[in-house]
Structure formats: structure tokens, C-alpha cells
Design goal:
- By secondary structure, the protein is of the alpha/beta class.
- The protein folds into two domains: 195 residues, Rossmann fold; 133 residues, Rossmann fold.
- It is 37% helix and 16% strand.
- It has 15 helices and 14 strands.
- Helix 7 runs antiparallel to helix 8 and helix 8 runs parallel beside helix 15.
- It starts with 5 loop residues before the first helix and ends with a helix.
Length: 343
């Protein structure tokens, strides 16, 4: 099997909680065999839309031809399982993102998961083709993934495979698009549309509930102690926050370009983080202690006003891989504190 490219590894690391995919780990089997574990997740599929199948789903690496309602779905994207669960589809396998997640999913997805126990696949060294084949899937989705053309070629020989759309990059498909693409693949396009509309309505309601946020500048950052820099994000996590009225600080555009989803500043320029609100995710408690003890950091306007929100690995996963399930959960955690301090 092929290992992920260095570019994919870099993106997963910087994307936040997705960096946890790179940590060493073992396949979680929940004390059952592959087949029994998969059966606990798969089975009766929710009723598909009339005329949904056969379906053709266009992706970057080719078309997925899906003849009928899939019953055994493997989710290889870092939040694809959320979209599936929101649509009533319980995957037989998902990828490992966080060691602390019960049965491989975040707390925002536990209710939708119910009693299902999907296999949790370790993708540190690439996608485990043999283990995926052993699960006997009739659909593989890797919309929010790092799939390469070589990976896709192998996977499509196992089952119809839905990668990210043409024009999108690895881990770069917006949550709305992700949900609708997966919805089409499982024959639940109408439900996918409703799920997206409900989340957008929720964000609009958040903006009305917290008018203090409107027009206030913010930054979503990550301190890289190893190289003495601060990552400034400009991706889906910041776009979601803009939908509740916040405004991304122009500093992001002035910082050194890293890639398509983040720029960075030297720690020597920490005093330039003068946004009204500051969100910082930390990989470890030690990283947080180190930054919060910094004299310059203590004097930042957002820190002094209380509009500083430290984010742990779980909340980072929820916000950096936004989905129809994680967005409402993340907003409930972030917005009340920010609104109170900004008000």
C-alpha cells in the first residue's frame, strides 16, 4: 500500500486535530473480530430517495457507479462518518482521529452512532487496503480525506469509491459539499439538503442570539513551539465563525503564506495578534502553559479583555473538521464565552 504523501502529512498536521492521525496507534477492534464488528455497524440502510439508484457520483479521480442502496460503508474521510451518521447511515469502519473518542467518533456524534461499533482504522502509514477489503464494503467514501490517485485505483477495485470533488484538494472539501456528495452516494440527497439547511439556520440563529459578535475581528491560531511560529488559519473553521458575525482579522492575509489554508507569523511578532477575539488550539497542556506564560501574550488585547478562548484537542477536531454534527456542538462551546467578553 502507498503511504500518504508529504503534502498530505503536512496538511493533516496543521489542520489541527487531524494531526492526531499521524500519531502511532493500533487498529481498534473493540474486542471483536473484523466481521462481527462490522456487522454491528452495518445492516439495514435507511430508505433511499425515490429514483436515487443507480447513482453516478463524479469525483476528482473518477466516477463512482453505485447500483443500489449501500449497506456496508467504509468512511475514510476525517469527518465523513459525521455526514453518514447525520443521514442515518452507520459505517462499518471509520478512520482514527483521536485516542479518547469512544468508538472512534467525537462526542457530537455519539447519539447518532447509537449502539453501532465500527472498526477504527489507523491510517498513519496509509490506507490499510487489505483490512478495508476484509470488511466487504459496498461503498467507500473519502471526501474529507487525503486519498491519492494511486489509493483510489486500489480502493475502487474493492467497491465504488467516492473521493473529493474535482477542483478540491485533499482535506479541502467544504462541509456543505461533503454532506451533499455523501448524501447522493447513499441515496439520501434530500435529507442531506435538509441537514445542511438546518445547520445554516442554526448559525443564523447564533448570530441573532449573540449580536455582540457582529463585526468583531478574530484569529484562530496554533502555536508551533518547535519552529517558533504561530499558525493563522483561513479555512472552513474560520468561515463557520464568520457566519455568526465575526470578521477574520486582516493580519491573516499579511502573514507569511504557508499553503492554501493557513499562514504564519514568527513568535517574535506575537504582539501583532491584536484581534478583538483570539482562539488558540493546543496539542498538549504543556504547549498551553508555555504560551500563556509568555509576557507578550499576556498583554494582547483579547487576553486582557477575556476574549481569549483556549481550545483542546476535542474542540479542535470539531471546529477544524466542521460537519453537520460537529458545528452545532462546537458553536455551543465557543460562542457564549466570546459573546460575554465581547459584549
Amino acid at each position: 500500500m502507498n503511504s500518504p504523501t508529504s503534502a498530505s502529512r503536512s496538511r493533516r498536521t496543521l489542520l489541527g486535530a487531524c494531526s492526531l492521525l499521524l500519531a502511532a496507534g493500533t487498529l481498534t477492534a473493540c474486542g471483536q473480530s473484523a466481521d462481527s464488528d462490522a456487522d454491528a455497524a452495518g445492516g439495514a440502510a435507511p430508505k433511499a430517495d425515490a429514483g436515487a439508484f443507480p447513482a453516478t457520483v463524479h469525483t476528482k479521480f473518477g466516477d463512482a457507479e453505485i447500483p443500489k442502496t449501500p449497506r456496508r460503508v467504509v468512511a475514510l474521510g476525517w469527518s465523513d462518518q459525521d455526514a453518514l451518521l447525520a443521514l442515518g447511515v452507520k459505517p462499518v469502519a471509520i478512520v482514527k482521529t483521536e485516542d479518547s473518542f469512544a468508538h472512534g467518533v467525537g462526542p457530537w456524534a455519539q447519539k447518532a452512532l447509537g449502539g453501532a461499533r465500527p472498526q477504527v482504522l489507523n491510517t498513519t502509514d496509509g490506507y490499510p487496503i487489505e483490512k478495508i477489503a476484509a470488511l466487504r464494503p459496498d461503498l467507500i467514501v473519502g471526501v474529507q480525506s487525503g486519498l491519492t490517485a494511486a489509493d483510489y485505483t486500489k480502493l475502487k477495485q474493492i467497491a465504488p469509491t467516492v473521493a473529493y470533488p474535482a477542483g478540491r484538494e485533499a482535506y479541502g472539501t467544504p462541509w456543505e459539499e461533503q454532506t451533499k456528495l455523501i448524501g447522493k452516494a447513499v441515496g439520501r440527497g434530500k435529507e442531506a439538503e435538509r441537514a445542511v439547511a438546518n445547520v445554516k439556520a442554526g448559525l443564523k440563529k447564533d448570530a441573532e442570539t449573540y449580536p455582540q459578535l457582529k463585526g468583531k475581528t478574530f484569529l484562530y491560531t496554533f502555536p508551533q513551539a518547535a519552529n517558533g511560529r504561530v499558525v493563522l488559519y483561513k479555512d472552513d473553521r474560520t468561515k463557520v465563525l464568520e457566519q455568526v458575525g465575526l470578521k477574520l482579522d486582516p493580519l491573516v492575509g499579511k502573514a507569511a503564506k504557508m499553503n492554501t489554508f493557513a499562514n504564519s507569523l514568527s513568535m517574535e511578532h506575537l504582539d501583532e495578534l491584536t484581534s478583538d477575539a483570539l482562539i488558540v488550539w493546543f496539542n498538549t497542556p504543556k504547549d498551553r502553559q508555555q504560551l500563556e506564560s509568555n509576557a507578550v501574550f499576556k498583554k494582547l488585547p483579547s487576553v486582557r479583555s477575556g476574549a481569549y478562548a483556549p481550545v483542546d484537542r476535542t474542540l479542535s477536531q470539531a471546529s477544524s473538521a466542521p460537519s453537520v454534527l460537529s458545528i452545532p456542538w462546537a458553536m455551543d462551546k465557543l460562542l457564549p464565552k466570546l459573546a460575554k467578553s465581547l459584549g
